[in-house]
């Protein structure tokens, strides 16, 4: 396990509500080829903070790698709603493109 992963885990032990650290840990797991662990971290993050818009695309990609395509589609749809509500048309368009590839 990388030093970054260990550092992020320690941060989350001290502050489980640190969304930035949870996102970072999920990304570290994804980069390390550990998609199930990444998915669990993204799920925890989005459950706690459904407005954490940056997580939707990456979480969907991880779910796709796990073959969990229907969950990825649902996540992309939720992400499109969040990004649209936040006025981020570019990110919403990226999620729409990812969704279209699955449909």
Task: Name its key features.
103 residues; mainly alpha; Serine Threonine Protein Phosphatase 5, Tetratricopeptide repeat; 80% helix; globular
Molecular structure report:
The protein is 80% helix and 0% strand. With 103 residues, it is mostly helical. The chain has helices at residues 3-14, 19-31, 35-48, 55-65, 69-86, 89-102. It has a single domain (3-102), classed as Tetratricopeptide repeat domain (Serine Threonine Protein Phosphatase 5, Tetratricopeptide repeat, Alpha Horseshoe), CATH 1.25.40. Helix 3 packs antiparallel against helix 4, helix 4 (55-65) runs antiparallel to helix 5 (69-86) and helix 5 runs antiparallel to helix 6.
Would you spell out the secondary-structure blueprint of this structure?
Blueprint: H1 3-14, H2 19-31, H3 35-48, H4 55-65, H5 69-86, H6 89-102
Helix pairs in contact: 1-2, 2-3, 2-4, 3-4, 4-5, 5-6
Quick rundown:
The protein is mainly α and 103 residues long. It has helices spanning 3-14, 19-31, 35-48, 55-65, 69-86, 89-102.
CATH architectural designation: Alpha Horseshoe
**What share of residues is helical?**
over 70%
Taken from the alpha-carbon principal axes, the silhouette is globular
Q: Kindly provide the name of the CATH class.
A: Mainly Alpha
How far do the termini sit from each other? Answer: 36 Å
Proportion of beta-strand residues = under 5%
